């Protein structure tokens, strides 16, 4: 038998003589994503498949919707080995490993083809994985959380001036906080699970997130205007506690990794469908939707020194790896 994580024992999966209940590896996985988000539903399918294919010997329980705490709390739990896996946003990971946030640079990627090329392999992906590895984290692939828009209850965002003084909810991301400060807004960090109440009670004037996430959190019930600013992309890394992962038998690693990869593919496809169909559904729910010209927003960021600031923070080598896929920023 091999020792895994905090005193757990796992017999090789190929040992049918050992009773499954005596050798079951029971692990926890935390996630901030709502129950009906495709990141949740596709992971549930993957964990069910892992459980079935291992005859119950690998039992990973997913706790979605921030049940285990905020993203930063779950990252801390993962690093300590209190949980074995987590799904956590690139934007929030920036507070731990700054380079993890680089794919979210404002208006960097024009679409998904260069984005997935950058994150599924190559120098930028390698640098991010190495940065996470220094904190004892093993990174799998990234699920999609989309290009982000602004939803508010006070006014549509048609120009940069409409953001002036707007109290906007952002995740705990230095990059997004910097972005909205540069555009004149007042960003405030609120746990995703608490955002609906914050918007309903006007603690915040609005939030920014992807269209499928806006749908999944149902904030359209307490907001009126959706502006398709597409200001930044964010995704969620599937992460493992490194020592726990390294302690697993190779066949267990192969089984988990294979189903995680399949979940990512399904999630990206489901997210794409939700994104394509979501605007019509949200219009039907009463949201007023507009698509502003994005060029003035990027020009305002250039003028405010946003890109120069982040190039200096990420460093010329990482910035150069980013620009291999985005072109000059």
From TrEMBL:
PANTHER family: PTHR33376, SIALIC ACID-BINDING PERIPLASMIC PROTEIN SIAP. This is ABC transporter substrate-binding protein. Signal peptide: none annotated. GO terms for biological process: transmembrane transport. The lineage of its organism: Bacteria, Pseudomonadati, Pseudomonadota, Alphaproteobacteria, Hyphomicrobiales. CDD domains: PBP2_TRAP_Siap_TeaA_like. The keyword Signal applies. InterPro entries: DctP_fam (IPR018389), TRAP_DctP (IPR004682), TRAP_DctP_sf (IPR038404). It holds the Pfam family DctP. The keyword Cell wall biogenesis/degradation does not apply. Belongs to the bacterial solute-binding protein 7 family. It is found in: Cell envelope. Keywords: Signal, Transport. GO terms for cellular component: outer membrane-bounded periplasmic space. It comes from Methylobacterium variabile.
């Amino acid at each position: 038998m091999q020792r895994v994580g905090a005193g757990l024992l796992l017999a090789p999966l190929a040992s049918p003589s050992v009773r499954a209940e005596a050798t079951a590896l029971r692990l926890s996985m935390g996630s901030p994503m709502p129950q009906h988000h495709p990141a949740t539903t596709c992971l549930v399918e993957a964990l069910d498949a892992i459980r079935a294919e291992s005859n119950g010997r690998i039992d990973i329980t997913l706790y979605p919707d921030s049940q285990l705490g905020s993203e930063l709390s779950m990252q801390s739990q993962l690093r300590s080995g209190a949980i074995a896996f987590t799904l956590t946003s690139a934007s929030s990971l920036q507070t731990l490993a700054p380079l993890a946030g680089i794919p979210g640079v404002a208006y960097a990627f024009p679409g998904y083809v260069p984005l997935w090329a950058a994150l599924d392999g190559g120098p930028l992906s390698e640098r991010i994985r190495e940065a996470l590895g220094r904190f004892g984290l093993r990174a799998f692939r990234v699920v999609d959380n989309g290009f982000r828009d602004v939803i508010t209850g006070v006014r549509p965002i048609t120009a940069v001036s409409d953001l002036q003084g707007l109290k906007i909810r952002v995740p705990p991301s230095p990059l997004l906080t910097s972005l909205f400060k540069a555009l004149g807004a007042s960003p405030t960090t609120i746990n995703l699970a608490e955002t609906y109440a914050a918007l309903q009670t006007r603690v915040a004037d609005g939030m920014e997130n992807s269209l499928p996430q806006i749908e999944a959190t149902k904030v359209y019930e307490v907001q009126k205007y959706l502006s398709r600013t597409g200001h930044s992309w964010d995704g969620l890394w599937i992460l493992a506690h490194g020592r726990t992962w390294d302690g697993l038998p190779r066949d267990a690693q192969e089984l988990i990794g294979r189903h995680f990869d399949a979940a990512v593919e399904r999630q990206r496809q489901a997210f794409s469908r939700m994104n394509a169909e979501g605007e019509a559904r949200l219009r039907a729910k009463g949201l007023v939707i507009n698509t502003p010209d994005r060029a003035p927003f990027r020009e305002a960021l250039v003028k405010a020194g946003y890109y120069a600031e982040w190039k200096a923070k990420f460093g010329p080598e990482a910035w150069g790896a980013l620009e291999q896929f985005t072109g000059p920023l």
